[in-house]
Design brief:
With 228 residues, the chain is α+β, with helices and mostly antiparallel strands. It has 2 domains: 2-72; 107-223, Glucose Permease (Domain IIA) (Distorted Sandwich). 35% of the residues lie in helices and 21% in strands. It has helices at 2-7, 14-26, 34-87, 217-223, and strands at residues 107-108, 126-129, 135-137, 142-149, 155-160, 166-175, 182-183, 188-192, 202-208. Strands 1, 2, 3, 4, 5, 6, 7, 8 and 9 form a 9-stranded antiparallel beta sheet that branches. Strand 4 (142-149) and strand 5 form a beta hairpin. Helix 2 packs antiparallel against helix 3 (34-87). The longest helix has 54 residues, at 34-87. The chain starts with a helix and ends in a 5-residue tail after the last helix. The protein binds zinc ion. Zinc ion is lined by residues 110, 123, 125, 127, 204. Zinc ion (ZN) binds next to loops. Keywords: Signal. Pfam families: Peptidase_M23.
C-alpha cells in the first residue's frame, strides 16, 4: 500500500486525496485479518466524510463563480455607461450624473443672445453645428411634453425637467421619443437635421427655466459642471 501511495503523482487538492484513498481501499487483500475490517469501516467513514467535504467545497466554488460573474457583468455595464457619458462631456460617477452635452461630435456655432437677420429677436439658444443624423441626447432627465414641427424651430422636442425648466431641441431631422415619455439623461431623443429656419444641419438648444424666457444654455450646462 505504501508503495501504491508513493508511486501516485503527488498533486495538490482534496479530490486527489480522495482518489488515492479509493485506490488504496480497492487494493486491500480479501483475506484481511478481523482488525482490518474495523480499519476498513473507519476508512469508509473517512472516505464518506472526504466526499461530503469535497461536495461542500464544490458548491461553495460554484456560488463564488456565479457571484463573480454577476460582479463582472455589473462592472461591464458601469464601464459602458461611463464611456457613453464621457463622450457627452461627463467624467464623474455614472450614478451621480445630472447633465451632459447634447452631442458627442459638434462645433459651437451661433451663441446665445446674438442678433442678426436669421433671428426675429435675440438668438434664444446655443447652436451646435453637427453632421446630419448625428444622435441628439437629453442634456438632463425629464418628461417629453411635445414633439412637433414648430415653424422656424423646425422639428422640435420639448423636455421638461423636474424643476420645471424646459429644454428645447430644434431643427431635428427625426425625433425618437414621444410626448409623455420619461427620458433619462444622455438618452437619445432624436437626430440632427436642418428643418425650419436653418441654413445647415445643426441643433438649436434652448433652456427655459421655469418655462419662462430663455437663458444661456452654455451657462446652464456650466452650472451643472458640464463644459463644451
Ligand atoms: Zn439657433
Amino acid at each position: 500500500m505504501g508503495v501504491h501511495m508513493s508511486s501516485l503523482p503527488r498533486r495538490v487538492g482534496t479530490l486527489c486525496a480522495v482518489v488515492v484513498t479509493t485506490v488504496c481501499l480497492g487494493a486491500l487483500p480479501a483475506e484481511a485479518a478481523p482488525e482490518t475490517s474495523v480499519r476498513e469501516g473507519a476508512q469508509a467513514e473517512a472516505l464518506a466524510q472526504a466526499i461530503e467535504v469535497q461536495e461542500q467545497l464544490r458548491e461553495r466554488q460554484q456560488t463564488l463563480l456565479s457571484l463573480n460573474r454577476r460582479a463582472d457583468a455589473r462592472d461591464r455595464a458601469l464601464l459602458g455607461r461611463k464611456a457613453v457619458l464621457a463622450a457627452y462631456g461627463y467624467h464623474g460617477d455614472p450614478e451621480r450624473v445630472r447633465a451632459v452635452l447634447p452631442l458627442a461630435s459638434y462645433r459651437l456655432s451661433a451663441g446665445y443672445g446674438l442678433t442678426g437677420p436669421l433671428w426675429e429677436a435675440e438668438h434664444g439658444g446655443q447652436d451646435f453645428s453637427a453632421s446630419l443624423g448625428e444622435p441628439i441626447v437629453a442634456i438632463a432627465a425629464g418628461t417629453v411634453t411635445e414633439v412637433a414641427y414648430a415653424g422656424p424651430y423646425g422639428l422640435r422636442t420639448i423636455v421638461v425637467l423636474p424643476d420645471g425648466t424646459e429644454v428645447w431641441y430644434c431643427h431635428q431631422a427625426e425625433a425618437s421619443v414621444y410626448a409623455g415619455q420619461v427620458v433619462d439623461v444622455a438618452e437619445q431623443i432624436g437626430t440632427v437635421g436642418s428643418t425650419g429656419n436653418s441654413t445647415g444641419p445643426h441643433l438649436h438648444l434652448e433652456v427655459r427655466p421655469g418655462a419662462a424666457g430663455p437663458t444661456d444654455p452654455l451657462a446652464w450646462l456650466s452650472a451643472e459642471g458640464i463644459a463644451p
